[in-house]
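Lab notebook, bench 4. Continuing the backlog of folding jobs that were queued last week. Each job is logged with the same field layout so the records can be merged later without manual cleanup. Today's entry covers Carrier domain-containing protein, a 1115-residue chain. Filled in by technician R.K.

JOB TYPE: sequence-to-structure
TARGET: Carrier domain-containing protein
LENGTH: 1115
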Amino acid sequence: MTNVPPADLLPAAPVQEQMWLVDKLDPEAAVYNEHLVFRLTGPLSVPALEAGFTLLVSRHTALRTILPVHRGGLRQCLVDPWTVRLDAPPDFSGRLDEAVEWARALIEEPYSSTVTPPVRFALARLGQDDHLLVLGFHHAVMDAGAAAQLLEELAVAMPAILEGREPQLPPVTADYLDFTRWHGKLLDSGELDGERHAWVEELSGAPHTLPIPEDRPRPATKGSRGSLAVLPFPAGIVPRLRRFSARHRVTPFHTLLAAVTAVLHRHTRADDMVVGICGDGRPQEYREVVGPFSCMIPVRMRAPGDLRFADLLAAARDVTLTAYERQFIPFRQVVNETLERRDPSRNPLVQVVFNAPPLHFREDTLPGLEMRTVHVPRGRSRFDLLFNLEWHGDDIVAAVEYDSEIFEAGTVRRFVDHFVSAMEAGMADPSVTLDDIRLTGRADTGPPRVTVEAAAADAAHRVLSTPAGPVVLRADDGAGEDGERGEVVSVPAPPAIREPNGAAAPRGLEGTLFTGPHEVALPEGDGALRVRLMEDGRLLWRVLNEPQARAGGAGASRSPALERRIVELCRELLEDDTIVAEDDFFAVGGHSMVAARLVQTLSEEFEAEIPLLFVFENPELHELSTAIAGRHPDVAAALEELERLTPEELAALAEEEREPEGADEDPAARDSSAVDGLGAAEEPFWLMEQFAPGSAVNTLTLSFRIDGPVDLPSLEWALNQAVARQEILRTTYHLGPDHTPHREVHDAHTVTVEVADLRGLDPSERTAALEHLTAVQAETGYDVSVLPLIRTTVVRLADEEQQLLLSCHHLVMDYWAVTRVLFPEISAFYRVRSTGQGQPPDKEPVSFRDVMAAERRWRATPAAEAQERYWRRRLTGLTELTLPTDFPRPAAPSFDGAAVHRLAPEAVRDAVHRFAAERRVTPFIVVATALSAVLHQWSGHEDVQLLTPCENRLDLAAADVMGAMVNLLVLRLDLGEGRVRTWADLLGQARDVVAGAYANQSYPAGEALRAAGLDALIASGRGSYVTLNVFQADSGFTLEGCRVHQGRIVADPSASTDLEVSTLIVEDGLLFDVKYRTALWERSTVERFAAACESAVTALITDPDAELPRVRGLL
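JOB STATUS: finished
OUTPUT FIELD FOLLOWS
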């Protein structure tokens, strides 16, 4: 087998993609670097060992697999067989500890798996006829079972090699690439869909966290730092375990799983839990294939305290047998369909993994050598707890990988002791209930009473003397609601820590603190006290169910009427009639702009101030309702009262409330036809037009591939219906007699859909012609005094394949207007004309001039004054961001530009979405955080500003109107070392800054900057600033009977600002599109900038608690 040409690259398996993503997020952690390390005692032929490993490389493609990224996706590719060299082994004679440390460093060194196979063979010398053998590999190409198979083949090959014979090994008839194809077809066939749905249904009601008491506060984000505890079980336990399991018609694994479940129940008091077990993942026909087959299988274990061990044993058998039938369903799919929200401090769904593979490496595996396993301590943790039980003849050794940020080594040792004692107790008496199993350590039969009493007494004293501690009764305290007097009774009894069944809690197990017969209680509402005696005699205590401060204030309750109104608005804003009160605003498609419109609409309806942060802090709609009701109880009460009124009463009330039209308005402001002066959003585009008349700097061009029979007359008719509805599409711009720009609306205008037919060209000519037509469309500007300011071309590529090119001038359309107004209107009209079905838009929109008149009226309100004060405070003292350039800035601004594109794979895109949901922020805030860090690093400025466009629609009526209403928001972030230390600090600041900016989005950016003395920043046309856009995938464009693919913004060779960073969520991943001025930078500099942006996003979502990089320059 030789190198696979790019056209034949095979997509990676789901497990490989998952591991690659983890490595991509934290490359230095080497979380999935696996290993086997053995001490070899006896005469070793290094050349024979090299020849044996080289033979294995030639036999198994997994050892010759690299994992490159091709067209945005992870692929598998084979390289030619390579020769294993174990030259000049380092000499650690008499220094085993140093040799183990050498092995650890080698194992944890990251692999370059995109260019070389992620496999290592190494040898070190410990003395005469004494060596340390290291087999290192990335889990994406091999699992432990595959490594064991390699050693078995090596054992067969070595004698032949030493004797000069050809090794007699069975031929390899399949490889992991074959399995990947088989598995991909199986998933695509839908054959597993029923099992997957059943599995998700089974797990949906289970708790998604396993609350093992922690020794240290759990970090906000799960890290990868950990430790390894290697603990032997009692000698000779395997024969007894096998005999017991055979009597009860289960496997030893079922017995072990039942025992660990019993201990988890006792430590967590959970009656229902999800535990991860590892599946072999190999179909029978791939039993001899080397590859990463092993898979994670979440199993739901129900373990109430009164359950007998024998019943738990049977449950373990039944659950695992069902689970193994489902092991070809990717774990990632199960997680995605089971969890609606993730906790970044924990692994999703599974935090504890139990693995007891029947692997055993005999000491005589290699001829003439004694081979013994060496445990290499690793500094990683993939889960809270990961149990690997190793079989060594009649003995078992537990190698427990644990999160050292939350657990101490003593806690893990005690847990394993409890595990062993639970297994022993269950085997001795299968009828014992879980709560009656006596959990002891291997060196004791229970804590000495004096130690427990002393520790408990000390705890009682400390708890009782703590201001927020337990209840202390005075002699005159009342009892009961009626104030009946009671007496305080002193009971001279020793304190104790007890389990729920009243038994004394063993060392290491959490319980309730008692003084005599009385539980030490906290004041009502302060939660329940739990206490644990540690291995070293310390006593840890914590409070469960502590009251959480909520934005809604104390005592806020749900308001059904307010919930219904919020749900109604979200359905309208997000165009999704399935939204319910339990939905997460961001999970159903909400983002910063929509959140701002939601809050603005609610504030206007209720005449109450509702902070935008409420949406971020309370993303579930019923939570948002509760928060608003807590802050404005009168609003909730009023809505409840309104819902009780009859339609006649509501109509009468509306009549009473209606003010005489125009009573307090300026007549000029009320007459929309008089509003022909430019609005604040139009002025920057007009000004740019004066600097570069007719250039493409103000041209927005979108391109869509359409498969299917497009009805061109219906498309043109639909476009003209939109032109008739939207007056801005019939508008031109002129200088008036007073030399000020004004708008002229024409009564009617007909637009034409141009057609370019390329079907007669050969494929290469067709591609070149399409690229040329697209470039012409994007690079052609407009004369804004002449209609139309919109162009549409359909390029025919095949009978049922077209490319639609639509461009417009920014004066008449912003991105919101295209994707949320124009395309939905065209789609609706097209369906009516082409099929005779459906309904056109049901109401005429207000005119663009009406919106401008409303804006003029708003500018005279207290709300506008408040926004002006906000921006004056935010921008005072701002130092303009200056970036190092490759060329001196020209005296006059140059609009010549180019663009750099960088595509992060789908896995990164999905990880950004998950991270944003877990942190209750938006992808925009994630990208803004990362970009500000890169700009800080590049420029050295601590005062970093980004300008970002926002939709700036004041109300729902304006949401249906086309035109340039977009405003620029200045996002100003302070990256001083005294202000932010970690990524999480900066993310929190960015969230607050974005929320504040969107809550004040309607005040014109030009005037806000002018008030701060920075009006030249955007008013001069030089555009020496950085803008950020984050575009969602949905364009709102559909054509009945056709498939409209996700569109793209076509770059043009012009740049209105120094740097414009657009992040697009596309089908293939996360696209960073950076437009730049060629008069300032080389392309290579901007390519490094785009790479730095992707790296910063990756660093942020990987380890938010890591410190911000402070090194100057682009790395």
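OBSERVATION: The two ends are 39 Å apart (CA to CA).
SIGNED: R.K.
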